[in-house]
Amino acid sequence: MTVAQKREATAYLRAELSLSQRRACQVVRLHRSTSRYAKQRGEDKELRVRLRFWAARRPRWGYRLLHWQLTEEGLAVNRKKVLRLYREEGLRIRRRRRKHVAAAPREKLIAPTRENERWSMDFVSDELADGRALRVLNAVDDFTRECLGNEVDRSLPAERVTALLDRIAKERGLPKTIVMDNGPEFASKELHRWAYRKHVTLHFIDPGKPTQNAFIESLNGTLREECLNAEVFESVEDARIKIERWRRRYNTRRPHSSLGNLPPAEFARRARAERPRSRGRCPRTPVREREEEVRGDRSTPEGAHSKWARNGEHFRPKESRPSRPGPTWCWRASTVMWR
Predict the structure, then answer these.
(1) Do 234 and 128 contact (CB within 8 A), yes or no?
(2) Strand 327-330 to strand 335-338: parallel, antiparallel, or no bridges (unpaired)?
(3) Residues 194 and 163: beta-carbon distance below 8 Å
(4) Cα separation of 299 and 288, whole Å?
(5) Strand blocks (E) in the chain
(6) Could you tell me which of 225, 254, 19 has the C-alpha nearest to residue 217?
(7) Are 267 and 144 in contact (CB under 8 A)?
(8) What's the pLDDT tens digit per position in 76-125?
(9) Among 82, 81, 80, which Cα is nearest to 69's?
(10) Is the Cα dihedral 159, 165, 167, 173 positive or negative?
């Protein structure tokens, strides 16, 4: 029996059988001070109003994000209390139950250690109000979790993928590696030529393993819950405006649990401030660093591919490579390596 049920049983024994409080508490095994305890909890009307307000504004936020929003407004409230009110107000989000699959060994994705070290890209699909298909291409920085940019249209060929990357590069430079799946836009010659010119490594995940590209999958899931499923797009231009507005709010205002409840832009600003600066010499530009990494020491066969040899990846020996310049494919590592 719960404490509330024991209180009701004590009251029943005292009213119907005229037992004393001491005797009734002995029968139900309840302490007398617990039986006499009266609730002193307030109604929390103001807190409930603010909780319902933000739940209506952010329908896909759970109680943790709502608690963070309330504390940002200056309300000193415990997280467990927010959870209790959240349940009493009937604000719980319905989520689909995942199908249980057999456990299998998974490769751990090594997290980057600094900004612009690795990006991830992927597509997400939706539709307009009239039923026409809509595609969104997103790019995310795996370290800061910033949504770097997106491309929205009914069709997005490989040329639009490279155009998005060039647009992002003008603002923050290029990464060493871009992680992506094996879609036709990413496996196209247009993107491979772009990566060769820019000295960027394209890393393809294994087919049917989206967990190997977890950072962009997380971003796309948040985009679908908070924007695509909550908005109605009348046209492609309307979709671009609303998705770009969501992207700016995601980067600057939405807290990220893996970043200590900091927005990605704020986390990136603090990471740049804490980064140690070099003294006594001018640091090399990122482009020069990437060129030297790709070239290596050409005097020895091992040094010609020192970057790939350090990572334990396999490549064709120098004498077996084709005479004309082009990419060297390594299907075991799912990586394109350029001469």
Answers:
(1) yes
(2) antiparallel
(3) no
(4) 19
(5) 118-127, 133-141, 147-153, 177-180, 201-204, 327-330, 335-338
(6) 225
(7) yes
(8) 888 898 998 888 888 877 666 655 444 444 455 577 888 999 999 999 99
(9) 82
(10) negative
Q: Alpha carbon 229 to chain centroid distance? A: 17
The residue whose two tokens read 């002193």 is: 40
Give the tokens for residue 127. 């539709």
147 sits in the region (left: phi over 0; alpha: psi -120 to 50; else beta) called: beta
- DSSP character for 130? T
Structure tokens at 89: 């107000």
pTM assigned to the model: 0.62
In tens, the pLDDT along 185-211 reads: 998 999 999 999 999 999 989 888 888
Q: How many residues are present in the chain?
A: 339
* Amino acid at residue number 147: C
Give pairs for 272-276: CB < 8 Å, separation 24+.
272/115, 275/114
Mean pLDDT, the chain, rounded, equals 79
Contact 153, 133 (CB under 8 A): no
| Paired tokens of 151 | 């491309």
